[in-house]
Amino acid sequence: MTQSPVDPTVLVSKLDLETKVRLLTGAAAFSLAPEESIGLGELNLSDGPTGVRGLKFSGGRQVALFPNATLLASAWDEDTTAEVGRMLAEEAMAQEIHVVLGPTINLHRSALGGRLFEAYSEDPLLTGKLAASYVRGLQSLAVGACLKHLVANESETARNTMNSVVDAKTLRELYLLPFEIATSESDPWSMMAAYNDVNGVAATEQDHVINEVVKGEWGYTGLVMSDWFATKTAAPAAAGGLDLVMPGPDGPWGQTLVDAVRAGELDESVVDEHLRRVLVLADRVGALGELREWPADLPAPDSPVRKEQLTRLAAAGMTVLTNDDALPLTRGTSVALIGRHALETIDMGGGSAQVNPPYQVSVAEGLTALLGDAVQVVDGVEVRTRPVAARPGFVLDPTTGNPGVHVTLLGADGTVLDDRHDAPPTTMVGFDDDFTEPVATVRFRARVAAEGPVEVGVIGVGAWDLRVGSSARSFELRSSGGFAEEMLAPPVEIGTVDVAGDDIIDGEVVLRPPASTEVVEGGTEIDATANPLAGVGLFGLVARPAPQPVDEVLAAAAAAAAQADVAVVVVGLTEEQETESVDKSTLALPGAQDALVSAVAAAARRTVVVVNAATPVLMPWLDEVDAVLWAGLPGQEGGHAVAAALLGDIEPAGRLVTTFPVADGAAPAWNVTPVDGDIEYTEGTFIGYRGHWAGTVPTPAFWLGHGLGYSTWEYTDASVSVGGPSPAVSVTVANTGERDSREVVQVYLEPSSSDEPVRLVGWATVSVPAGGSARVQVQTDARLWRAWDTESGEWSRIADGGRLLVARGLGDVRAGLPL
Ligand code: BGC
To answer: Which region is the signal sequence (predicted)?
Structure first.
């Protein structure tokens, strides 16, 4: 790419104040304005972190859906995240996107955090190193990364107003550390300031964090943008170091910031510096001077190369939690595959990380593809409280017979604005669609590929008429309130009808006009015009087999399990728990899934449980089953990846990236509901495994770093060498199993003082053939030997002494090396 011949500082000096300030707020939801007079082109951003959705929030083009961040991180492998970064850059370039809004590098403080699925780990070193390699991969193709969300943004409840109360030591040693590591090792071209306040100051106004620490101490050369709609003020945010307000074109800066400069409240040089950083970013991504040309020959989201990559990346991160010789499955055994997640595998979390993938392979499809008739698939218990859009395959386009729904969008005068096929029928109208006129009516047709009682219904605000065969229903759905609610929980209504097989659903919704005040549940009056989604929301069609009583489901599952050589039960969470904007209230599996596992385990010869969730769940049935495979949210190739992992075609060689508590509350940090607006990070630096090791809370079910793979390992001759900035550990690992395998050698520092928590200081991965051995060296990271001295405001080295622990997670320590 050609570098801009012009110095950004010189370009800034050519613009007047109004123009400069205008360029400091986005031009649209996901783009920055061009400015021809200085050769600045339009600059496009898109959400990541595990899929590049594009410029539309909803219903956009089809793009590859990657495994979620915790699953990718479970490989504990910088080459993996670098590959992911390069793949994301390709996905971005295919859409002419300059910056991908990821990685998310907040830490897993409380397991209740709704958005942990987007972030790598509870550990700052693992998070920082993986983020750095992801950024290097992405930026090697001149697509910018965006570290988010700066900082102390670990939960979602009241996320726009909550105040994280974090002492300086904890902030430095834990929550800022991944940002520090990624900054020094990969020079990310942007960062995103979070919604929350930190110690009473908005994250978007954090002079201390942004100006003093990030841009000052770390010498950060990139740009800091706000999270979407997060900026609360003009001059204080600009003075606090925020460079760019997102989204736009409206926002709190504009004329208010111009006036603040004119009134002498803010020096114009501050505005200039922000714009200089915008231009540096534009230059780096090819949007300044000679604009970049985009490659044309990039892999399609459903291309063979993507299928191979996405299957391999997902399967390699899957983690064997327990295994009493039940895994891998042997070909030739008969399998009862049970559970709603087997049929409707959850491949991504909810919120801004969602993408529109070309397809999603369920575990039922993946395992049947490998084992054919040897697999009997049995649906499980209900796992959601809210209905979701019909699964393509259950409904078919009546004209073409393709899975999905035929949709026609009409303007107020009946003009056809769009006539298309939707699979799945989740977003017939998106709030950011750009038709020439507003959509007034949606008509849709689908054939139900089933017989018997079927639940049908509708999702979204409006007056609905639905005919199914000979029965007809009408629904009037109203707005549930604000933006996030409407996005994440649009109104929905369902009813049960009997279909005779191949019945057609004919539907029409007339959208409610947005210009009205309405009274929502609880008697609150809302101004519907203030809600950008009112009357133009997301429209889905619900159609699925009517739910069966739980005892009948359990009986059918147990009967199938008793007939098979092995029962594989797939359980998990859904986007109701793992989503942006909402936290969990428990780690228990939703619905009667625990009862389902127990019923199957009681009837089956062997029981394997697959956990389809990104974050910890409780497993009260652990002693009743023979193996547990944690499968994360595995992306569009999820079903193929789970099948490959179950059969050992790809070793599920993952190690946990977060500690699994043994019960609700049995963790060092738990509460995610602000008290008087505050979340106090009182556990300090003792989150996750660090707090469990200190003994303040019960021993966890599984430690960070735990994972069995498909082999066994012997560790010998561990030794420490000092000298250099930090010690290194050497150890010989022997693969004592019968399969070639991959080991993750982890080194933890247990400091001499109990005021300092145990911590991961380094790791190395090694692949060793069955019966072979390897000498592995782990260089510990000097940054983990520091302690922040709050009084002097400086780093010091932690006290001498203590031990280095060589471990496979702290539940399986193989050597203790005194220091
Ligand atoms: C999220 C960000 C995201 C942004 C744009 C916000 O709600 O917190 O992570 O990048 O929306 O979609």
So the answer is: none
**In terms of Cα–Cα distance, which of 378, 298, 304 is closest to 334?**
378
Question: Which residue's CA lies nearest to atom 5 of ligand 1?
Answer: 228
Residues ≥6 apart with Cβ < 8 Å to 521: 480
491: CB partners within 8 A, 6+ apart: 459, 460, 461, 477, 478, 479, 480
- Give the phi and the psi of residue 386 in degrees, each rounded to 5: -115, 135
CA separation for the pair 170, 472 (Å, rounded): 60
Q: Tell me how far apart the terminal alpha carbons of the chain are, to the nearest angstrom.
A: 50
Model confidence over 183-211: pLDDT tens digits? 999 999 999 999 999 999 999 999 999 99
User: Residue 48 CA: which ligand 1 atom is closest?
Assistant: 10
Taking residue 698's Cβ as centre, other Cβ atoms within 10 Å add up to: 13
* Per-residue pLDDT tens digits for 560-610: 999 999 999 999 999 999 999 899 999 999 999 999 999 999 999 999 999
Provide the pLDDT for residue 484. Answer: 56
Q: How far is the CA of 224 from the centre of ligand 1 (A)?
A: 14
| 493 DSSP β-pair partners | 458
Q: Alpha-carbon torsion 202, 206, 209, 210, what sign? A: positive
Nearest to 618 by CA among 583, 642, 594: 594
**Rg of the chain's alpha carbons, rounded to an integer?**
27
- How many whole angstroms separate alpha carbon 818 and alpha carbon 28? 58
3-state helix, strand, coil in the chain (%, to 5): 25, 25, 50
215: pLDDT confidence band, cut at 50, 70 and 90? Answer: very high
> Whose CA is closest to 235, among 259, 214, 200, 211?
259
pLDDT tens digits, 714-771: 999 999 998 778 999 999 999 999 999 999 999 999 999 999 999 999 999 999 999 9
Q: Whose CA is nearest to atom 4 of ligand 1?
A: 228
What's the count of helices (H) and strands (E) in the chain, helices before strands?
18, 37
Token pair for residue 806? 């060589």
**Closest protein CA for atom 6 of ligand 1:** 228
State the Cα–Cα distance between residues 509 and 465, nearest whole angstrom. Answer: 6
- Please state the pTM of the whole predicted model: 0.94
Q: Say if strands 31-32 and 794-797 run parallel, antiparallel, or are unpaired.
A: unpaired
Give, for ligand 1, the residue of 46, 580, 581 to mutate: max count of ligand atoms closer than 8 Å to Cβ: 580
**Which atom of ligand 1 is least distant from the CA of 351?**
7
Q: In 227-386, which ranges are continuous DSSP H helix?
A: 235-239, 254-262, 268-284, 304-317, 340-343, 363-371
Give 266's DSSP letter. S
Domains and CATH numbers, the chain: 8-284 (3.20.20.300), 317-382+550-658 (3.40.50.1700), 387-546 (2.60.120), 711-818 (2.60.40.10)
How far apart CA 229 and CA 487 sit, in angstroms, is 15
Tell me the mean pLDDT in the region 336-348: 97
Give residue 533's pLDDT. 42
Question: Which pLDDT score is estimated for 529?
Answer: 46
Structure tokens, 298? 């990039």
Residues in contact with ligand 1 by the CB-under-6-Å rule are 47, 101, 148, 227-228, 352
Whether pLDDT at 449 is above 90: no
DSSP string computed for 412-462: TTS-EEEEEEESSTT-SS-TT---SS---EEEEEEEE--EEEEEEEEESSE
Q: Is residue 326 over pLDDT 90? A: yes
d(CA 94, CA 63): 10
Structure token pair of residue 752: 């001499």
Residue 466, strand partner residues: 473, 507
d(CA 592, CA 551): 10
List residues bridging with 505 in a β-sheet.
446, 468
